[in-house]
Write a structure and sequence with these properties.
The complex is a heterodimer of chains A (448) and B (487). Chain A has 448 residues and is α+β, with helices and mostly antiparallel strands. Chain A is built from ten helices and 17 strands. In chain B, strands 1, 2, 3, 4, 5, 6, 7 and 8 form an eight-stranded mixed β-sheet that branches. Chain B has a five-stranded mixed beta barrel with strand order 9-16-17-19-23. Chain B has a four-stranded antiparallel β-sheet with strand order 12-11-10-15. The chains are: A alpha+beta (448), B alpha+beta (487). Strand 2 of chain A pairs parallel with strand 3 of chain B.
Chain lengths: 448, 487
């Protein structure tokens, strides 16, 4: 931990050295540890300490960005020189207005001393709890137990001075037999909230229940999607069309449909970077306070998120605090997504399905047709047949090719509880319920 | 650097490590993105640090830092040993990395024109010219061009006595033109899609691929796609162009031959492999026409280097010979493990362990995994095809976690009728099961059509790592493929 004072000293050094009209410095100080296991043994155990500096220099309407991780005065001055030098080579960007000015921002406490001080021995103990249960059942466990401390800060020459420190702890496992696998994961700010015994119990149980899977014809079926599978679809909805840039370029699924019904009435999705239950970051990578933005409300397309650049293109728009680190070509994206829960219990949801398929999670999901929100991917780590309201047998994994909007138009039940699912990228995390969806399209089947 | 590497290796040895290596790595990146006539992003990155990998108490530990000072080396070295000893708490067997690898050498990517010596003005002018050509076509809504250059200098030293210094230089470029209609976006990319085409080469690589000379064609094809008919859904003959075939090789051959995946160490994240060890030397992967080689020595390939990040020399390995599966990508540890069940397997690693910078541990990564050329000319291949579809440039991809069931989409497709290319088709996709698909390969075009395509965005590992890989391909034909699953 460097602390706000040290990060401000670094920023002051950068801003003192800067000669541009406007200058922004983004500092990311990380300490990450990860214990990885497979075949019931720890095979990789790593730790990293890094501080990266990102300087955006503005000369009139010319912008240059440089990055480095040398914190010496000379190193910082070099990053500034590089940013200003390449800004000098730039053309003027007519869409650029200004770096943001300072605004009061909320603070969110997402720091856990226990996580920051977590030792490799402590992570090994957690891993061993999973491995023991796996060995006892004649199975093989793989997975990762990671703990991270992150300090994020944005300073600029207009007076922005934003700082946040936070921690995260993640434990995930896939437990396998010769012909089956089971998955479980937990994520929290405080490592003490993780329950390795429970993670191991769920994954082992699912691996045992999914043995001897049978092939099943692809087709359109009612599905029970666990929370992680729903979170994958919510994440892609945000990535594909809930930012201002695809709207401005007329390639969002909301293009021409803002204010119209795009999903079922039971679907409400918003972004909230201030929710202390998530991996909150109360400001974006320009230092603008994050706003809670309602994106889809009761099935109606409501809003997209903005950074200062895309907001500057539209009369009367202001940044909603959703910029990504400069430079980026993606535009602003919602990364703290929430999907509203319903009111059903898991038992009620399963009982409601006459004939359908239980999906634990998806694998290697990618867009096929972004405007129609069509994704393809595989099921993984626990796929079961449901008949007359009961889980009857494990199935071999399917390929799906399915529009998210169509799926969310056919989501007839949502669970009363939502679960936080962390993606593999930074602290992007999504709260989503489990869902029962009719007519979900499976277009292929694999051999296991 | 010797003073730092010696200090690290001496420190970990004194704390009980039985093996150690240190990598000191600097990466300099220059990236330029142009969109609709404006330079959207222009950035320079300078990233530096070191990582120490140790075996202590028979288990692995790794720690890294961005501050190369004597005190920090002492701290990180001690941390690596502490982590290894914690790993040993849950280990069942000690790590075995096989016979020692001792090399003292230097390697540098041969380049004609140092890309970091070429002015930004020249690069920007080239991108703007390509962008202008693409947008000269009526109906093109978005044109986007990019260039990227990398210089990586790294020093590797091990407790076995290796000391290797390498400088790798990469150059890459790409252009995409997008046309937008209601509910439809179509795009065409050149020379390749997603993350551009890249090689270990200097600025001569950029000149060779001539972005401005292809801007107009990309624009015209993107606009034409908007009104093209949908690719039909049927079982048919499929011909793939080089870039799409490169991704097919990457996903359905390159990943499943990674021996760490086979042994399950990626099981929880990227997945495992259907090419389990009982199939080694004993499994028909494809037809007789299928010959696949992994190498780190093809000039200009994005997977070309002198030594991997375990200090093992880059080399060439047969993977599939006349359809028969014969080789894996290995590390020192997995090569040693394979020998225990297959005594005829090579004693040493074939040198494919690479790390995504100083702060990541090396894992098995593809180098240049290539489908070797056949004897067909492209024109003869089309002329020899009565009915089928020719698909060009990847647009979407997905494959299961054992690398069997895949589905790809391409930007562009054409009907093939009676030996001639016919109508343009949009939203083309195809799907299959890996050994069946490669078993249906009955023709591969010749060396005249062969190129090593760069894939600079291969994800694997936890924490996540991105590798740069190469794939040599020429267009090839596949029988009885399911196309057009999307309605």
């Amino acid at each position: 931990m460097l602390g706000k004072g040290r990060l401000k000293e670094i920023a002051d050094s950068v801003l003192r050295a800067a000669k541009g009209d406007q200058t922004e410095v983004v500092i990311q100080a990380d300490a990450d540890q990860l214990t990885r296991f497979a075949e019931n043994t720890i095979h990789q155990n790593v730790a990293e300490t890094n501080v990266s500096i990102r300087v955006r220099s503005v000369l009139g309407k010319k912008i240059g960005v440089a990055m480095g991780n040398d914190l010496s005065e000379e190193g910082l001055a070099k990053v500034v020189r590089n940013a200003e030098s390449i800004a000098g080579f730039q053309q003027e960007n007519p869409d650029f207005r200004s770096l943001p000015g300072p605004e009061p921002a909320d603070t969110v406490d997402i720091f856990s001393e226990s996580t920051a001080m977590c030792t490799p021995a402590r992570r090994a103990e957690g891993v061993e709890a999973i491995l023991r249960r796996s060995r006892e059942n004649g199975l093989k466990a793989a997975g990762a137990f990671s703990t991270s401390t992150a300090e994020s800060a944005v300073f600029n020459s207009l007076g922005v001075a934003a700082y946040q420190r936070g921690t995260s702890a993640n434990l995930m496992t896939v437990v396998m037999s010769e012909d089956s696998s089971g998955y479980a994961a937990q994520a929290a700010k405080d490592v003490n909230e993780l329950d390795p015994q429970e993670v191991g119990r769920i994954a082992v149980d699912k691996a045992l229940r999914s043995r001897d899977p049978q092939p099943f014809d692809p087709g359109a079926y009612t599905v029970f999607l666990e929370e992680e599978a729903v979170a994958t679809m919510v994440f892609f909805l945000g990535y594909l069309g809930l930012g201002a840039l695809p709207m401005q370029e007329k390639r969002s699924f909301l293009t021409g449909r803002m204010g119209e019904k795009v999903t079922g009435e039971n679907i409400t999705i918003w972004d909230d970077g201030l929710d202390p239950e998530g991996f909150s970051l109360p400001f974006d990578f320009e230092g603008v306070p994050r706003q809670k933005v309602m994106l889809i409300e009761n099935g109606i397309g409501k809003n997209v998120v903005y950074d200062s650049f895309t907001a500057g293109r539209e009369e009367g728009k202001a940044s909603t605090g959703h910029s990504l680190p400069a430079p980026n070509m993606l535009g602003p994206i919602p990364i703290h997504l929430h999907m509203a829960p319903g009111s059903a219990s898991r038992e009620e949801m399963i009982a409601s399905i006459e004939r359908g398929i239980w999906v634990t999670r998806f694998h290697y999901t990618n867009p096929v047709h972004p405007v129609k929100t069509i994704l393809t991917g595989m099921t993984r780590d626990g796929t079961f047949l449901i008949e007359n309201g009961e889980v009857t047998r494990p199935l071999k994994n399917f390929r799906f090719t399915q529009s998210i909007l169509e799926a969310f138009a056919n989501a007839r039940m949502l669970s009363a509880e939502t679960k936080l699912t962390k993606s593999g990228f930074g602290n992007i995390a999504t709260f989503a319920p489990a869902a029962v969806i009719d007519g979900f399209r499976f277009t292929g089947v694999t051999e296991f | 650097m010797r003073e730092y590497t010696d200090r690290a290796l001496n420190t970990v040895e004194s704390q009980g490590a039985s093996y150690a290596d240190i990598r000191i790595v600097r990466r300099e990146n220059q990236n330029i993105n142009v969109k609709n006539g404006i330079v959207q992003t222009l950035s320079l990155t300078d990233d530096f640090g070191f990582g120490i990998r140790v075996i202590a108490d028979g288990a692995w530990g790794f720690a890294s830092s961005n501050r190369l000072t004597p005190e920090e080396i002492d701290r990180v070295a001690a941390q690596a040993v502490t982590i290894a000893k914690a790993s040993a708490l849950a280990n069942t067997e000690p790590v075995d990395i096989g016979p020692p690898e001792v090399h003292v050498d230097t390697y540098k990517t041969p380049v004609e024109i140092d890309p970091f010596e070429v002015s930004l003005e020249e690069k920007i002018d080239t991108l703007l010219a390509a962008d202008k050509e693409a947008r000269a076509v009526q109906g093109v809504a978005i044109a986007q061009g990019s260039m990227g250059f990398l210089r990586e200098t790294k020093t590797f030293a091990s407790s076995e006595g290796s000391f290797i210094e390498q400088t790798l230089i990469e150059s890459g470029l790409g252009l995409v033109a997008r046309a937008v209609a209601e509910g439809e976006v179509q795009q065409r990319s050149y020379p390749n899609s997603f993350g551009r085409h890249q090689g270990t080469a200097g600025y001569e690589f950029v000149k060779r691929w001539d972005l401005p000379g292809h801007g107009r064609q990309m624009g015209e094809e993107a606009v034409a796609l908007l009104s093209a008919p949908q690719c039909p859904s049927k079982q048919t003959t499929l011909i793939l162009d080089g870039p799409q075939l490169a991704l097919q090789v990457h996903e359905s051959c390159g990943h499943p031959i990674e021996l760490d995946r086979v042994y399950g160490t990626e099981a929880a994240f990227a997945g495992t492999s259907f090419l389990t060890t009982e199939k080694y030397g004993n499994f028909r992967y494809g037809s007789d026409a299928v010959n696949i080689v992994a190498d780190a020595v093809t000039p200009g390939g994005l997977g070309t280097y002198g030594y991997d990040d375990e200090g093992v020399p880059g080399q060439t390995t047969d993977i599939v010979k006349h359809g028969q599966f014969v080789g894996y990508l290995t590390s020192r540890e997995t090569a040693s493990q394979l020998r225990k069940t297959h005594p005829n397997a090579p004693e040493r690693s074939n040198g494919t362990m690479r790390a995504d910078g100083w702060n990541r541990v090396p894992i098995i990564r593809m180098n240049n995994v290539s489908l070797m050329p056949g004897e067909w000319s492209f024109d003869d291949l089309i002329a020899d095809t009565d009915d089928g579809i020719y698909m060009v440039t990847n647009k979407s991809w997905s494959i299961d976690d054992k690398r069997l069931n895949f589905q790809f989409g391409t930007e562009l497709a054409y009907e093939v009728k009676n030996g001639k290319l016919g109508r343009m088709l949009k939203n083309a996709t195809y799907t299959g099961i890996t050994p069946q698909f490669w078993g249906g390969c009955d023709a591969v075009c010749s060396a005249d059509h062969w190129n090593v395509w760069g894939t600079p965005n291969c994800g694997k590992g936890q924490p996540g790592q991105v590798a740069h890989t190469g794939h040599g391909t020429a267009p090839a034909r596949f029988r009885n493929v399911r196309v057009g699953v999307m309605s």
